Amino acid sequence: MPPPPPITNSIRRLRFDHDEMTQQQLADRIGMTRQTVAAIEQNKYSPSLEAAFRIADVFGVGIGDVFQWKTPGT
Prior knowledge:
Blueprint (H helix, E strand, L loop, with lengths): L6 E3 L1 H7 L5 H8 L3 H8 L7 H11 L3 H4 E3 L5
Antiparallel strand pairs: 1-2
């Protein structure tokens, strides 16, 4: 079994908390495809720093409220 990704995120919860925003709606607001948003949300793809800030901005939160860094071994 592969180790868990070092970066996790709260995008799904944030989308739900913001009137159940769809992946497509988020993608449109940050200028990405729905498939890319889905991959980021599922921790299969790490966004660029710019994209991470755009996502945080959409939800009106800090980047640390969207993405969490897990130190190896914790």
